[in-house]
């Protein structure tokens, strides 16, 4: 049955909602798809629910196609299983906790590994019953610190979560690959421009893990990609191998002493000039103050006379203004040596340029370099020589961690790819899906074992796989909208055709009504703007705002026996004879 605008539970808004940041979110509210009930909690109105159901159908079809069996767990869950895996604690403030009338602790499920594991434990006991893949499309609760952008980060949201159960590692790998292929089909059908990136397995534990990120400037994740090799990873998961170590001869030849600031201390400009003179960059670019200020490597003298370089982090803030910094890094401002952080080096450093010198909110951190090698890109400041003069030796500038790797968060455009490939590019993305090889972590915690071929009890190995179903609605809206409104791909649109009847003439409404019936008979779903007293201008604006892919205007042209068919996305219009209209629409 066509959705008639005269009766549809819909009210479009001309004004943007005050609490919405992103254009897609504003439009979903303005076009009457969703309504905010509380921060991060949304009501699905009829049109929104149609889109959501379409996403669900795509996800369901692809999960069924890999043999997933659908079931549905409650959202209201007991504490004990989450206690057993320590997630009652680990989830911290993100968990919605509550008590029943008897004072028994409960939670609203943020994800369901525990419940699936226990269900399989209760019902299955033999390797013959595996492999098994179960899934649900269900409401999740997470008390997100910053629920933003509406459906993109809800506190109540809909996720497809599936779980695979296998007796051995090869089985898990196969289940993971099946899911990966299903996800490719899902995100292709949803029409995303997406990348599959290596992901940090984070709190979930386990080994292999990948994310499907929709490429989008409004994404909260940053990923790196190497065009040449196809390598792609979430920056959280990137570990760049250590750059070639500095020649030990350089280290040995560096005079060591305490770091002291003196009136002769070089200015930032001197450091930059020295760096450019002594150590031209491989990429031809000139060093700038921001580079030299990234790190200082201080040559330490141990009480026994041995020398060791120590890295001191300078502001992580790359935009730091050299002048401002220089002004602040006066000897008086040097923060006192922090005994706690430098416990291993008592008496060795007189001061460091720390948060105090740079303001409390400075992201400046102290980093140790316990290995005397310095990652390429590090500024290298040695202490005063025996004449009391500072000797500055700049070796290329970059942050590094104690284990000698470049920190994930420090990856920059142009860095080498960990797989040996050419330069990395950085971009932002929205996490749409996440697949994990969990391994035996949950099965062990909850004691999920089955008998193997030899009658021996073995712990089951698991995978867990999520798709952000409600997030997908928002991400598609974000990716496809234009200045006029939402602009759905056909696969997700709440209807195939939006028929607009204009004018006051009853003949127009009669023709439009017949056309709607024809379109429906042809299997198309229709929104029919049959409102008698609304101006054509308002109707056109609403049709554009709602974003159904094909708009058909029945009105002025009828005198010549034509109607107009307009493509919402391209704006292309054409007139076609009314009797051929149904056939011409798609
Ligand atoms: P994020 O990094 O965005 O917080 P996550 O890594 O915490 O997501 P997972 O635990 O991997 O999320 O959950 C699986 C999927 O559920 C995610 O890939 C994402 O698409 C979706 N999802 C997670 N949190 C939310 C949320 N608050 N609102 C909507 N969808 C979400
Ligand atoms: Mg999260
Ligand atoms: Mg994530
Ligand atoms: Mg994730």
Furnish the topology, listing elements before pairings:
Blueprint (H helix, E strand, L loop, with lengths): L2 E2 L18 H8 L3 E5 L2 E4 L1 H20 L3 E2 L5 E3 L1 H5 L2 H4 L5 E4 L5 E4 L4 H11 L8 E10 L14 E11 L2 H21 L4 E5 L10 E7 L5 E5 L6 E3 L13 H6 L14 H11 L10 H4 L2 E7 L5 E7 L8 H7 L6 E2 L14 E2 L2 H4 L22 E4 L5 E3 L32 E15 L1 H5 L3 E3 L5 E3 L1 E8 H12 L16 E5 L4 H16 L4 E4 L6 H11 L3 E5 L7 E6 L5 E5 L3 H4 L2
Parallel strand pairs: 1-25, 4-8, 24-25, 24-26
Antiparallel strand pairs: 2-3, 5-7, 6-7, 8-9, 9-23, 10-11, 11-20, 12-13, 12-20, 14-15, 16-17, 18-19, 20-23, 21-22, 26-27, 27-28
GO molecular function, one term: aminoacyl-tRNA deacylase activity
Pfam families: HGTP_anticodon, tRNA-synt_2b, tRNA_edit
Catalytic activity: tRNA(Pro) + L-proline + ATP = L-prolyl-tRNA(Pro) + AMP + diphosphate
Task: Fill in the keyword field for this structure.
nine-stranded mixed β-sheet; alpha+beta; 16 helices; binds adenosine-5'-triphosphate; 28 strands; binds magnesium ion; globular; 586 residues
Architecture overview:
One of its GO terms (molecular function) is ATP binding. Residues 35-489 form the Aminoacyl-transfer RNA synthetases class-II family profile domain. Belongs to the class-II aminoacyl-tRNA synthetase family. ProS type 1 subfamily. This protein has 16 helices and 28 strands. It is α+β, with helices and mostly antiparallel strands and 586 residues long. Strands 4, 8, 9, 10, 11, 12, 13, 20 and 23 form a nine-stranded mixed beta sheet that branches. A six-stranded mixed beta sheet has the order 1-25-24-26-27-28, sandwiched between helices. Strand 12 (221-225) and strand 13 (232-234) form a beta hairpin. Residues 201-206, 241-248, 250-266, 290-396 and 398-409 have low confidence and may be disordered. Bound molecules: adenosine-5'-triphosphate and magnesium ion (3 copies). Residues 111, 142, 144, 153-154, 157, 159, 431-434, 466, 468, 470-471 line the site of adenosine-5'-triphosphate.
């Amino acid at each position: 049955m066509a959705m008639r605008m005269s009766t549809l539970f819909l009210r479009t808004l001309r004004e943007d909602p005050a609490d919405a940041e992103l254009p897609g979110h504003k439009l979903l509210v303005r076009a009457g798809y969703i309504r905010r009930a509380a921060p991060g909690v949304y009501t699905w109105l009829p049109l929104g629910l149609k889109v959501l159901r379409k996403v669900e159908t795509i996800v369901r079809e692809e999960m069924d196609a890999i043999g997933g069996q659908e079931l549905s767990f409650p959202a209201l869950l007991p504490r004990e299983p989450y206690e057993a895996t320590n997630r009652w604690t680990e989830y911290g403030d993100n968990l919605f906790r509550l008590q029943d009338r008897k004072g028994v602790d409960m939670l609203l499920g943020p994800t369901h590994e525990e419940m699936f594991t226990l269900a399989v434990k209760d019902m299955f006991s033999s390797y013959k019953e595996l492999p098994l893949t179960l899934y649900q499309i269900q409401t999740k609760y997470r008390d997100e610190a910053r629920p933003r952008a509406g459906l993109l980060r809800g506190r109540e949201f809909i996720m497809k979560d599936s779980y695979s159960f296998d007796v051995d590692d090869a089985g898990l790998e196969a289940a993971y690959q099946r899911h990966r292929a299903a996800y490719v089909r899902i995100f292709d059908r949803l029409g995303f421009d997406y990348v599959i990136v290596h992901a940090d397995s984070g709190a979930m534990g386990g080994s292999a893990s990948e994310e499907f990120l929709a490429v989008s400037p409004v994404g909260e994740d940053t990923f790196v990609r190497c065009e040449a090799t196809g390598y792609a990873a979430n920056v959280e998961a990137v570990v760049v191998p250590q750059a070639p170590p500095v020649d030990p001869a350089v280290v040995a030849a560096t005079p060591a002493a305490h770091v002291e600031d003196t009136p002769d201390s070089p200015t930032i400009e001197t450091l930059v000039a020295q760096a450019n003179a002594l150590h031209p960059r491989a990429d031809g670019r000139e060093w700038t103050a921001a580079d030299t200020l990234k790190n200082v490597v201080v040559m330490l003298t141990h009480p026994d006379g041995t020398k060791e370089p120590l890295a001191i982090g300078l502001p992580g803030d790359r935009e730091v203004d050299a002048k401002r910094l220089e002004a602040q890094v006066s000897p008086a401002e040097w923060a006192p040596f922090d005994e706690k952080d430098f416990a291993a080096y008592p008496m060795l450093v007189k001061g460091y340029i720390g948060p105090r010198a740079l303001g409390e909110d400075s992201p400046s951190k102290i980093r140790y370099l316990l290995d005397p090698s310095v990652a390429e890109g590090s500024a290298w400041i040695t202490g005063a020589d025996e004449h009391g003069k500072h000797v500055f030796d700049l070796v290329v500038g970059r942050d590094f961690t104690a284990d000698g790797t470049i920190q994930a968060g420090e990856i920059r455009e142009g860095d080498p790819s960990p797989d040996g490939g050419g330069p990395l590019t950085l971009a932002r993305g929205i996490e749409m899906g996440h697949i994990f090889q969990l391994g035996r972590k949950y099965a062990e915690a909850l004691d999920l074992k089955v008998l193997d071929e030899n009658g021996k009890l073995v712990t089951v190995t698991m995978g867990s796989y999520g798709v952000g179903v409600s997030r997908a609605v928002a991400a598609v809206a974000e990716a496809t909208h234009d200045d006029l409104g939402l602009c759905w791909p056909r696969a997700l649109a709440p209807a195939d055709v939006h028929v607009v009847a204009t004018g006051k003439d009853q003949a127009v409404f009669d023709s439009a009504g017949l056309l709607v019936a024809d379109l429906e008979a042809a299997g198309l779903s229709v929104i029919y703007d049959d409102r008698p007293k609304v101006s054509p201008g308002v109707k056109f604006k609403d049709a554009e705002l709602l974003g159904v892919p094909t708009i058909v205007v029945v009105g002025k042209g009828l005198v010549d026996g034509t109607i107009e068919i307009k493509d919402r996305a391209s704006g292309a219009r054409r007139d076609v004879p009314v009797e051929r209209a149904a056939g011409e629409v798609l």
